[in-house]
Amino acid sequence: MEKAKEFNSMDKLKVFMKKNTMLIALVIVTLFFQFETGGTLLAPRNMTNLISQNGYVVILAVGMLMCILTGGNIDLSVGSIVALVGALAGTLIVTKGMNVYLAIAICLAVGILIGIWQGFWIAYVRIPAFIVTLSGMLLWRGVALMILGGLTISPFPEEYLNLFNSYIPDPFGGQINIMCMIVAIAVCAILVCTELVSRKNRIKKGYSTGSAAQLLTRLVVICALILFAGYKLANHKGIPTILVLLAAVVLIYSYYTSRTVNGRYLYAVGGNEKAAKLSGIDTNKVLFKSYVNMAFLSAVAALMCVARFNSSAPTAGMSYELDAIGACFIGGASAYGGTGTVGGAVIGAIFMGVLNNGMSIMGIDANMQKAVKGLVLLAAVAFDVISKKRKESK
């Protein structure tokens, strides 16, 4: 009897470790760099830098996840779309003096049009996504260079920069940003309530759930991380506006993928497209929408990037597609499609951000940094492939 209980406990521990592998890895890597950098990595000012430096990765990773879910498809053109939309924003706002909000609307519309163009060839003509987006990578980069004429446009007006580079004001005043701590506590409370209600509903419907101890451990770890991050931000300038935008994108797409019918179609198409089509799902439409959405989020990322750098440059967006793809796979998305979560993609993006920032602070050579990221990405995909083979062999 005691042996049976011991085995049962070990199985539960294995399941918990498997479900939270990347979260545990993120905590370990963060603690390692925090120790190696003498506390610089998680210093209040550097926490804000981490958010601003990696905000675009989170946005692009969320969009890339939608493409990967449809069957392991990727979008290689996102970096070039960032460059094109950034060039357009610089031309309209700085050179032409257009109203900031009208220029933003035009930039987002251009992103959607690019997505419609690429989505049409991928979903309805059935040209492989790799070929279409590779074409887009060259095409949109070329258009961006033509718009800029090989020059950099700067600076942007303060009205535009404040939309992305400012901080949420604290009405309480004081040395520590009280508003930041209130928001962090509120986020934890909402998270706990949501998880408990979700667990209760799953039990009521007869679905399998993990043990209460596993849920409690997970919630404690996540809430501790949120409160720690909130405290660090409160000791600098508070909540960056870019963090509010990131939170909105993550929450909207988390709800979309997990709670809506159209969101679940992504998983169905990625799991087995033929079966999904026979079930009545318009697979072409699902594929089309995922690429339109990817281009739209690329335009959002472009607007963030030009505000951060305060310029539109011909070299903007270089290798951004690789960062987004890497974040998704490191965060648990399957290379075959049908598996992955928005939360996992965000953890993958944060993991890469911590890796980049930590190695930079330590003064590690840029070439070595690329080698390390390459090995991490290979390890993440290899883990996915090996796990799938083990399941199939059982």
UniProtKB/TrEMBL annotation:
It is a multi-pass membrane protein. It is found in: Cell membrane. The chain crosses the membrane at residues 21-44, 50-69, 76-94, 100-125, 137-156, 176-194, 215-233, 239-256, 291-309, 329-355. The keyword Metal-binding does not apply. Its main location: membrane. Part of the binding-protein-dependent transport system for D-xylose. Probably responsible for the translocation of the substrate across the membrane. This is Xylose transport system permease protein XylH. The lineage of its organism: Bacteria, Bacillati, Bacillota, Clostridia, Peptostreptococcales. The gene is xylH.
